[in-house]
Amino acid sequence: MSDSNHLGVPMCLEEFGLACDGSKWPPGFNTSATPRPRLGDVPYGKKFRSCTVENKLALTYDDGPSQWTPDLLDILKEHDAKATFFVSGIKLYDDLVNHRSEKTPAIIRRMYNEGHQIAGHTWSHPDMDQLDSQQRRHELIKGEIGFVDILGFFPTYMRPPYNICGAECQTDVGELGYHVVSVEAPAISQMA
């Protein structure tokens, strides 16, 4: 099981000799020294889960892009609807040797060009409360590298995998200049 379908999973077992995507650093500009100014009134490093405009809802998709994302984008465009896509950085690559996906950059650019919000969902989709501060930081920075390569910038909004991000996690995420988006309602769909 050393193909690209198995090597990127969160439970990839490096101790058994497999090269796991989750532990690799992607090629590209390392964003760790990038200034992270605080702008606006949206809190940094604190979860928020509701819209500020009455009678509005936020349509969000986690863990993409997937093979169904282009169809979803077509539907959203047909209905003039916008969404936020929480993208796991590892999905920007085809395999564990960090080869850039051929299709994914075009999908990410299409999301952005059609007015959707692109947000982070970590690099390898771990439970952020099970990581130490440095591991959490690496999860976010690895994802940023792929976004910079595709879009020229990285997002400042993120949703923690499994919607888990306790006080220490929120502090670490806030120090990197992220707004933490939570979920109010249970997930009702699969990957986008």
UniProtKB/TrEMBL annotation:
Keyword Metal-binding annotated: yes
Keywords associated with the record: Carbohydrate metabolism, Cobalt, Hydrolase, Metal-binding, Signal
Swiss-Prot/TrEMBL GO biological process terms: carbohydrate metabolic process
All copies of domain NodB homology, residue ranges: 55-192
Single Gene Ontology MF annotation: metal ion binding
Cofactor: Co(2+)
Cross-referenced PROSITE patterns: NODB
Name used for this protein in its record: NodB homology domain-containing protein
Source organism of the structure: Alternaria alternata
